[in-house]
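ingest -> validate -> predict -> emit
validate: passed (alphabet ok, no gaps, 231 aa)
predict: started
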Amino acid sequence: MQENQDRQQLMDYLQQFGIQDVFHEPLLPHVSLYLFEPGEKLCLQGEQPDILYVLVKGMTKTSNNSPEGRTLVLSFKTPPEMIGDIEYIEKVDNMNTVEAITPVEALGIPYRWLYKYGQDHPPLLQFLLRIITSKFRIKSDSMSFNLMHPVETRLASYLLSVTTDQNPVLITGHPADYNLTDIANLIGTSYRHLNRVIGQFVKQGWIVRKRGNIAVLNRPALYQLAGAAVF
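emit:
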């Protein structure tokens, strides 16, 4: 993690996401812009947090480790997203581990200043409320989605959500990227079954898999399979 000293860049991000009022004059001097490389952790499960982050560039992976050592990938997040919000409100240790899977930029402010200047600041409280309610809605939708649709539909929807026409390649060969174990956990299937479904998609000409990459070749076919069930 590195701190970016460019205050103008920080102000530009506040304006870009319309959150200038969230960090008002008493809070603003304590807001910093942090840079994370792929694989770096923004927070670790079980540790005591002290900074609230707002993701403004890049993508993160949220995961949870069981006492038996198993890792469950919960979500991939893109801006704007808040990290450490529930921990800030509940005053608990980090519930999950959040890791950068691309170069990430995040605004960060220590909890101590939030407790001092933000407890009665309506724009901050409203922002927290929007982010937290959105997280619970997405989690509910994701659970319903995994229960109601077969793996083929889930994988098609997932591939559509993490690729675009301009960037159709999904990198799966690096631990900090979208490895297949993470994808299997996220869409609620086994690694072996995921490989079988990927093989089916390859045979149908919808994707190509080569050297740790998956490239989408036929987005319309995936959209047809996914239907309205976009991940």
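The helical segments are 7-16, 85-90, 111-117, 122-148, 151-162, 180-187, 191-203, 219-226.
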